[in-house]
# Entry
Amino acid sequence: MKNEQFNNRDVSDSYFLVDIPDYPTDGWGKFTRVVKRTFRGELFVGLWVVLREMIKFDIHTVQYPLEKMPIGPRYRAVHEMKRLWESGTERCIGCGLCEKICISNCIQMDTKIDENSRKEVSEYSINLGRCIFCGYCAEVCPELAITHGGRYENGSEQREHFVMYEDMLTPIDALKAGKQLEFEGFGAITPHEDERVKKTPLSY
Amino acid sequence: MDTAYLIETIIKVVVVLLIFSALAGIGTYFERKVLAFMQRRLGPMYVGPFGLLQVAADGVKLFTKEDIVPTNVVAKVFKIAPVITAATAFMAAAAIPFLPQFTLFGYTVHPIVADINIGILYILGIMGIGLYGPLLGGMASANKFSLLSAARTAAVFISYEVVTGLSLLAPIMMVGSLSLIDFNEYQAGGIGDWIIWSQPVAFVLFWIAAFAETGRTPFHLIANDHEIIDGFGTEYSGMRWGLFFIGEYANMFFISFVIPLIFLGGYGDGSFLGALGLLGKMAFFFFFFLWTRAAWPDVRPDQLMWLCWKVLMPLAVINIVITGLVMMF
# Structure
């Protein structure tokens, strides 16, 4: 589906004024209006509409804890830490940019030099009670290591609750099974988005 | 009065009371389900299979809730008002034949508590007394909105008593009796004998008035939903509110029995099929109460009064005059 057909936004040919007759002023006019409205059967149209919906049984309810709506790839929920596809090592290089840019100061990290003289993360936690899920950490990350995931159920019994590095990290077996999802990023388009594009009228 | 009759009557009273108290609860379940399906929802789903035990859960909640009598209310009146609604609803059931007579263990049972010769008059009178429930409850509540709602309720109920009575007058003239059993005998010949064919106007008028008498949706302004409160029941909670609720739903069931008994042949010739027919007609009229709630908007109080006094009442009177003329000549 292409967007060209939406470029012509002049929809004036499909709009029309509803024909509303003048209100009756004399008694006879009011009487005839009442009679017309009584026997036009509009009440039965309403009855038929709701009965049709009942017979069709097209239920739109999502039974939430059992069923869940799919969420878009741009959704910014609890963070995830990615691994490199080839070697399986952690992508995070401990640069600390996410900690610096975090505007609600919810990321705390500690780094050290490991035995290969590489910098690695020794402590990493995000305070989800403070996090506003702005997405700056994911945007600033030079290695695409910290991203947002789709896990939005993070209720807790207290205001401060933390998610640790190990909990966010993709499990090694999930990576080997090819189940690590790449974050599409903030400009990413929801799949099949252009099917939902509607014409916005500019003139009537 | 002999003892067997007394025992039989008491048993009948208890059975009617139990069955219709339970039906009032199940009626709320049906209402929630039907409304949900018509609005593409599922309704109660979690308590029991398909939410069937929701009724029990609601009952437990209502019974165990704290009994609150707010400050400044007139406590005695406040406490008695819900009882009036529920009691009058069930008292009206005394003159309704729910089923044709049948034989149980060699004993002929008449499924009517009291076949009094003024049956319909009694039912209408008792349902008219039901007005005092909302009226007293609203006036005693020390709440402006309850008071307004009580005034509205009184206006609606009193106005529509007129339509109910006048619309029923024509069928009563034809049958020549006030007993619902006589009404049933009059129409026992089959579909062709139903009073609806000779009195279609009275049928429609009575049906419309039934909505006003039970306070159901096109005329649901007794508990004005768009004030976000429950009208006269605003200050009520727990089982006192539950009594209002039971009264309303029992009233719906009884009216749904009365309409087919008067206009649609009742249980017909008294066979098993006829009894099923009466239950089926009752189910349709009860369903229609729920159906309109999903489909139709409420009317304004002034429109309701206009409809009653300027349209329905003249129509009812004209209907009586024409019926009288036809019967005379």
